[in-house]
Amino acid sequence: MNKILVTGATGHLGGAVIETLLTKISSSQISIITRNEEKRLEFQSKGFNAFLGNYDNVAALEKAMAGVDTVLLISSGDQGNRMQEHRNVIDTAKKAGVKHIAYTSRCLNNRNTLTNKLMVEHFETEDYILSGGLKYTFFRNILYMDAIPQFIGGIAALEKGIFLPAGNGNVSFALRSEMGEAMAKVLLNNECENKIYNFTGDKSYSFYDIATALKELSGKEVKYTNVETSEFKEMMKQRNLPEPVIQKIVDFITDIKHNQEADIYNDLENQLGRKPTGLKDGLKVVFGL
Ligand SMILES: NC(=O)c1ccc[n+]([C@@H]2O[C@H](COP(=O)([O-])OP(=O)(O)OC[C@H]3O[C@@H](n4cnc5c(N)ncnc54)[C@H](OP(=O)(O)O)[C@@H]3O)[C@@H](O)[C@H]2O)c1
After folding, report:
1. What is the pLDDT of residue 201?
2. Is the overall model pTM greater than 0.85, yes or no?
3. In 3D, which of 81, 28, 17, 27 has the Cα closest to residue 55?
4. Mind listing the pLDDT tens digit for each residue in 223-264?
5. Could you tell me the distance, in angstroms and rounded to a whole number, from the CA of residue 144 to the centre of ligand 1?
6. CA 187 to ligand 1 center in whole angstroms
7. 172: Cβ below 6 Å to ligand 1?
8. For residue 191, what pLDDT is reported?
9. CA distances (Å), origin 111, targets 88, 126, 179, 223
10. Burial group, residue 288, by CB count within 10 angstroms (0-12, 13-18, 19+)
């Protein structure tokens, strides 16, 4: 790799990618794009080629891709316009003569049976890249272990318990930082042409397991209650969450219940050269316990 553009470099996942890239290449070989001028200046002061712009600003994307041979597209968090944003990055890469595009997709069991339609966009982005003819790498990342607090109501779950309609569904959670590290290792080792990596933990865990791990870590009586979806929706309504938000959460959790995120692969372990962090150690980090 001579020169790489990392989108989302100011975020958590992109930050972990950059940290590992810098162990082998210099900041002058890395371009970044951010919507925030302060962050741009910060990166620039460290020797990166830093550009101001977003996934909708094709002119800025063109500038950021000049002389770049690999683009790492970190999926947009925008849930309205995401596909168009991704198409903008992919189309611009082709136009700018980029040779290879890497994309952060999701590791899900079956795209055809997903309840959460937002997840389908990851596969549609993969399809779009494939149809464009650029060399590709798909990093199919599992649900971040770091996202567990958001699902269970944060640290308050230690006192209140966990109430979710997730049944006994399992997730092969992995730490976001370890997936970022592994992505960078793949890119640095040039093991990336037309390959798919499924980054997951080496075990999968239910919310019963999460409650048990939190109980062991905190010494508190943490219990997981597998509530009915209707009851869960009512609980969300009482917290004044808007209906579309509630439905989005329910769709997410329904896929977990159906084990869409339960598959286990050894790609993460192979790239890290060690076992990925397990649930108990990961929760310790995530909750600061
Ligand atoms: N696997 C999972 O469990 C999981 C969970 C949540 C999200 N995700 C996906 O993974 C992505 C990265 O996660 P993360 O934790 O690193 O997110 P994060 O910390 O929120 O960082 C998001 C990054 O994306 C950039 N970005 C967002 N929208 C953009 C736009 N329209 N144009 C240009 N840059 C944009 C931000 O840049 P600036 O703010 O500097 O412009 C920031 O660098 C998320 O965006 C989401 O698609 C995956």
Report:
1. 98
2. yes
3. 81
4. 999 999 999 999 999 999 999 999 999 999 999 999 999 999
5. 13
6. 19
7. no
8. 73
9. 23, 12, 21, 32
10. exposed
Backbone angles phi, psi at 206, to 5 degrees: -95, 175
DSSP 3-state percent helix, strand, coil across the chain (nearest 5): 50, 15, 35
In this prediction, the residues of the chain whose per-residue pLDDT falls under 70 are 1
How far apart CA 80 and CA 150 sit, in angstroms, is 21
Q: Is the CB of 13 under 6 A from ligand 1?
A: yes
Structure-block tokens of residue 57: 């600003």
Question: Which residues partner with 39 through β-bridges?
Answer: none
A 10 A CB-CB count for 118 gives: 13
Ligand 1 atom, smallest distance to 10 CA:
43
Domain ranges, ordered by start, for the chain: 4-143+174-201+264-276
b/e per residue, 256-279, with b = 16+ CB within 10 A?
A: bbbbbbbbbbebbbebbeeebbbb
Contact between 152 and 242 (Cβ < 8 Å) = no
Token duo for residue 277: 């962090």
Q: Is the dihedral of CA 140, 23, 175, 54 positive or negative?
A: negative
Architecture of the domain defined by 4-143+174-201+264-276 = 3-Layer(aba) Sandwich (3.40)
The total of other beta-carbon atoms located within 10 Å of residue 165's CB is 21
Q: How far apart are CA 141 and CA 163, in angstroms?
A: 25
Give CA angle at 22 (34, 78), nearest 5°.
25
